[in-house]
Amino acid sequence: MAGFTVAIVGRPNVGKSTLFNRLLEQRKAIVDDFSGVTRDRQYGVADWNGKTFNVIDTGGFVVGSDDIFEREIRKQVIVAMNEANVILFMCDVTTGITDLDASMADQLRRTDKPVYVVVNKVDNSERLLDATEFYSLGFERTFFLSSITGSGTGELLDDVVTHYNDEVDEVSPEDEGIPKIAIIGQPNVGKSSLLNALVGEERNIVSDIAGTTRDTIHTRYKLFQKDFILIDTAGIRRKSKVHEDLEFYSVIRAIRAVDEADVCMLLLDAEKGITAQDLSIFSLAARKGKGVVVLVNKWDLVEDKETNSVRDYEKELKNRMAPFVDVPIIFTSVPEKQRIFKAIEMALQVAENRKKKVPTSKLNDVMLKAIESFKPPVVRGTPIKIKYVTQLPTYTPAFAFFANLPDDIKQPYKNYLENQLRSHFDFQGVPIKIFFRKK
Ligand code: GDP
Ligand code: GDP
């Protein structure tokens, strides 16, 4: 399911970020560094038995007077109730139920979404006895665990992922197979302006796909004889007390939009360049196998555009985007209507590239020649031989190379094969997976 999201809420020091890190393991978190009075909030992608889901650690360390503190925590709970599919309400067995726990519990009782009371720091069996106190909060689901040792997390996750299929994707049959393009980027880069400029002409709009529960708006369009769905994350302003918390929402929405999309149009502000957060979203999209087009917007504001400025800008950008650099970069200006339709055309092309299946005979013709002209190395006196390659029947491009010593083929040669694939078959904007198998 697209965008299944688990939020961890709780007072400071109960162990939220410890659990978060455990769930993510080696994966990289996206840290929201805008959050002001609260500690950095973290976002990431976790995996449990092959089911991947988004995790939000809503933070918790709050500086300020007691009332600011309370207000911030309440805000975090509201955000979690709005944005997540499942809420983990974390408490600490060593302190027992505090006043703040009790008031958060009151707040959480108002949601229909599954709320798990997660009693943390249950490191041993004595503490397990103390932990039973938390049943008195009256939630249907109460779990005990130790985030430090990891005990109890498996049971919790087994239960959490049972909600995975609760929410069915709201794709109607006639929208099936139509490319979905998400417009993402930080606040103020020009997402809404782009959308309005692209589709200002009402006649292009085929239908609005109503989505009252969504964080994203899906609208179906037709341009250049092609149907597509734009996923817009910009236009939504929630009628809640937390609407000022723009950056927080914008990151969660971006993550969700990436999940729902086939291709992401990542907008940057030409004057600001690519930020650490843009890069996190970019690599997230790549990891999830999504197509990407980068738009350097507000190009009109860049002064003294010399002959080489586009090339230099692009080079600089690709240095930061490495290793995934076979990505279209388009320099746009919304008020001057520069290249904005080209951007859409490019996104549609990337959607095509992502679905591409190269016939096996052609693939072998080309790739075996490439392998012949630059052979894999010899290991322990035995030459590595790649005999056959096939594209896997996966949703996004993946290739299996059959070899005598598949485990001995290292990253540099893998990069070579990827570059060869990219130079012979157009996979621009699309992440490619390469596997080696025993022949
Ligand atoms: P957060 O403020 O809720 O994110 O809490 P942290 O994850 O920063 O944890 C607060 C403190 O509790 C840290 O010193 C952790 O090492 C400790 N802690 C977290 N989980 C456990 C646990 O399962 N057992 C014990 N004994 N300590 C823990
Ligand atoms: P969003 O938050 O990403 O949806 O950004 P908006 O579409 O609201 O744009 C933020 C501001 O940037 C507005 O004042 C726009 O008029 C302006 N803007 C958007 N695109 C461009 C552009 O290409 N060039 C210039 N100069 N301004 C732009």
From TrEMBL:
UniProtKB keywords: GTP-binding, Hydrolase, Nucleotide-binding, Repeat, Ribosome biogenesis
GO molecular function: hydrolase activity
Positions bound to GTP 2: 185-192, 232-236, 297-300
Residues in EngA-type G domain copies: 4-168, 179-355
InterPro entries: G_ENGA, GTP-bd, GTPase_Der, KH_dom-like, KH_dom-like_a/b, P-loop_NTPase, Small_GTP-bd
Family affiliation: Belongs to the TRAFAC class TrmE-Era-EngA-EngB-Septin-like GTPase superfamily. EngA (Der) GTPase family.
Protein's name according to its UniProt entry: GTPase Der
Organism the protein comes from: Chitinophaga horti
